Amino acid sequence: MGASTTALAARSEQRALPRYPLEVPVRFTSDTLGFECEAELADFSEQGVFVRSDLLEPVGTRVTLRLSFDEGEPVQLEGAVVWATERGPKGPGMGILLFGTPQGYLRRLVDLVAELRARGLLSESTTKH
């Protein structure tokens, strides 16, 4: 087992909260970027998100994410990159630990997942990795 595989296994074992698969557009920026990037949210939990992106920020970088849901106000999330991968099972991207998530963030995402599942547009799986 290589070092990166070991790190992935250890990270999976540390997670206690379920992750929900959800592929929606997200925009992000950071202190190191001078512009806003388009990416894709691939999954989320109460404490973090995986952002699929070819542009990877260094571990420790603070990022700001903006998600838009239907006609509602965009949700802005603050966090830090805790890991990044050029190649992974979900593609290139970054794991982001969220800071003080806004009230209602998780509820809005869970409701969106339920709606997409009801329409048959999303599988029933939730994961702990």
Provide keyphrases for this structure:
129 residues, alpha+beta, Thrombin, subunit H, single chain, globular
Kindly report the CATH topology. Thrombin, subunit H
- Average predicted confidence as pLDDT: 77
CATH class: Mainly Beta
Number of domains: 1
First-residue to last-residue Cα separation: 18 Å
Q: Kindly estimate the percentage of residues that lie in beta strands according to DSSP.
A: 35-45%
Number of helices: 2
Helix coverage percent: 10-25%
Main sheet specs: 6 strands, antiparallel, barrel
How many strand elements? 6
| CATH architecture descriptor | Beta Barrel
CATH superfamily: predicted glycosyltransferase like domains
Sequence of secondary-structure elements: HEEEEEEH
Gyration radius over CA = 14 Å
Stretches with pLDDT under 50, minimum 5 residues: 1-13
Going by helix content, strand content and strand pairing, the class is alpha+beta
Tell me about this structure.
The N terminus is likely disordered. By secondary structure, this protein is α+β, with helices and mostly antiparallel strands. The protein has one domain: Thrombin, subunit H (Beta Barrel). The longest helix is centred in the last third of the chain and has 14 residues. Helix content is 20%, strand content 37%. Strand 2 and strand 3 form a beta hairpin. It starts with a helix and ends in an 11-residue tail after the last helix. It contains two helices and six strands; from the N terminus they run αββββββα.
